[in-house]
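REVIEWER CHECKLIST
Item 1: Sequence provided? yes
Item 2: Single chain? yes
Item 3: Sequence as submitted:
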Amino acid sequence: MKKIFTLKVVILILLLLSLSCPGASADRRSSDMEYDTDRPGMDFRNFDLQRANPELCMAACAEERNCKAWTYVKPGVQGPSARCWLKNSVPSATRSDCCVSGVKNRQVSRTDMEFDTDRPGMDFRNFDLQRANPELCMAACAEERNCKAWTYVKPGVQGPSARCWLKNSVPPATRSDCCVSGVKNRQVSRTDMEFDTDRPGMDFRNFDLQRANPELCMAACAEERNCRAWTYVKPGVQGPSARCWLKNSVPPANRSDCCVSGVKNRQVSRTDMEFDTDRPGMDFRNFDLQRANPELCMAACAEERNCRAWTYVKPGVQGPSARCWLKNSVPPANRSDCCVSGVK
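Item 4: Structure as written out by the authors:
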């Protein structure tokens, strides 16, 4: 009887662990995948994968500008290794237990949309949409390398059809029920914000904000290549409007209810790391790290415009210090306990 009770307790603990928070990122990644699904045709590249993991195929598609969809073929179907097929369009889905497939940028969250908002100006392209759906305009911006923001204009405002405006910078937002707008890569978590915090000093630019929203200051920092941190000052502290201060370094944080602050690229998840993995080749820079922490290498890649992937080499492998290798493309992953790697 005691053994049966102990077994039940173990099963209950395992069930609770499977429902805990760390699995949330895995659930999100799996929601981008179409299990037991093939999307045959429209291929422009295919290759074997070193590990049987559909996320490697999804990541390869994310890196390819022309890739619109992908299919991962399980080991033993087209050879001993798993195989990845990249597609320059989105073929029809068919039911098949051979495969896992996905469509690039299909995972669209309505929280990325600014309803009843126009962002006038800074346009480089505009066009009618076949359907009155702002997600089509957001997806078009995601596909354009130069697009930084977008505005969807409802049918009947600029003609009988809905219209999409793509922008090469981020114009200010104005309240208008004509439109839905958005900023590319705005996906902002409130956990990136340091509430009741000031980071005084090291400023290179400051300006009033049209709306009292700290996300506008954080987005402005994200757009500035030299920005490392930011501080949003509430209305009434430095004038009637909210004010944004952009910083070219990361000053110390001070407790203050005047402000909200943040550090660029501070939100680092260990789920972005490929432990016991090397990605050899395609290096453009390498350097010793002052501390044996792979997050420092990942952060260095995030700061480099040309960096697509990185490998952290543990201390004692290439010298007494840990070493970081930055890569201008995404080399294949190899199993190795020397290293931790990642894809930007």
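Item 5: Key structural point noted by reviewer: Confidence is low (pLDDT under 50) at residues 1-31, 107-111, 187-191, 267-271.
Item 6: Recommendation: ____
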